[in-house]
Amino acid sequence: MPPRLAPADADARPITAVTPDTLEATLEALPELARGWARARAFSAAPGEILPLPGPDGAVAGALAGLGTPEARARLRFPLAGAASLLPEGTWRYQSLPEGLRANAALGWLLETYRFDIYRAQTPAPARLAAPEGIDPARIEAMATGEWLTRDLINTPASDMGPAELEGAAKTLAATFGARVETIEGADLLERNFPLIHAVGRASPRAPRLIDLRWGDTGPTLTLVGKGVCFDTGGLNLKPGASMGLMKKDMGGAATVLGLAHMLMATGAPLRLRVLTPAVENSVSGQAFRPGDILRARNGLTVEINNTDAEGRLVLADALALACEETPDLLVSMATLTGAARVALGPDLAPVYATTDADFAALAEAAPRASDPVWRMPFHIPYEPMIEPGIADLDNAPSGGMAGSITAALFLRRFATAPRYLHFDIYGWNPQPAPGRPKGGAGQGARALFEALPALLRP
């Protein structure tokens, strides 16, 4: 079932949000039994702390939820989300919740209820939340459902999530909202001039493809491009086993743009949306592309292959070149592209490259409202020579290992010629669980972009 908030319900059991400053007054206002219980349990209002409270008959009648200090609360993206898993069955409502935390509390609750149960039954979170006053429940539900879709796609193992299955997910999404999908597959990629997508995917028995989803007939144009490498062995530059273990998530960019597309279509965003997904499996066989090969991209630029494990930027290059043939008002790419981005910012922050200061400013202003942090990285022009090998226009894997995320972004910029371009070098995975954010597949940047789009695409 998709994540849903319950209608406002005065009979729902109350959750009282408490800070250390309001703790003593809150406890004094409780009935004697509940107050004694809270003191006995040493409830301290720490962020994420949840305490069910007994009623006169001993049954759970309410709960306290710790908010902590602002400084402590900043350590948890969804400080109240744990309540969804810790409280017993029934409908609950927040009271005394600051207005600025209501949307975060509702979204965090729905994200906490996510379970990846395709392969093994998981215990669902039994509690439901009544929509807090002053929020848009449909918008919150669309954001949560889009994130659930992204998580499901990333968490599904490559045995069941290859290029064809990713295409199936895009078609299912399109059918839900009346969108259109065209797919170019296998040898037709060469006929239609997508040589880099074909080269990366040709070694696999699972045919490479370009999935092209369109929705909407009026408004500004937004094109999303998501890296869809459904599994990455590294190709002939084979990854060691330890580095290959999480490569089912290498289609995290595609999963994230599909989740964002759900948010946009579910809320009837006033725009013309295009989603391009180059979907491949980077495999090893006699058909694999080789180190030292020079390949010609869709836009005519030549690329020297110095590492077949730097394949994501290749498939994105052809898709970005196609996207720019229509000059969208805003072009966005999302990709699990470089380990260098994780070294720079870790798994929690989404690195973003922007061609205009105004676009990043709008994104940075919106990101906290969506509880989806981003951090700007530079298109540092002095590094351009690092991606120019001499015998071809571009090098897909500059030697030396310096500025790996930046040089990858500069590589993509040669194909993303639209005046306004945002590139997200995401991780797509939570290595450690946190409230509202289970270990496993994760969208990054999608909610921030969803929240920022009214400003980014303002007429």
Automatic annotation (TrEMBL):
Keywords: Aminopeptidase, Hydrolase, Manganese, Protease. Coiled coil: none annotated. SUPFAM superfamilies: Zn-dependent exopeptidases. This is Leucyl aminopeptidase family protein. GO terms for biological process: proteolysis. Residues 307-314 form the Cytosol aminopeptidase domain. GO terms for cellular component: cytoplasm. InterPro entries: Leucine_aapep/pepB, Macro_dom-like, Peptidase_M17_C, Peptidase_M17_N_1. Belongs to the peptidase M17 family. GO terms for molecular function: manganese ion binding; metalloaminopeptidase activity.
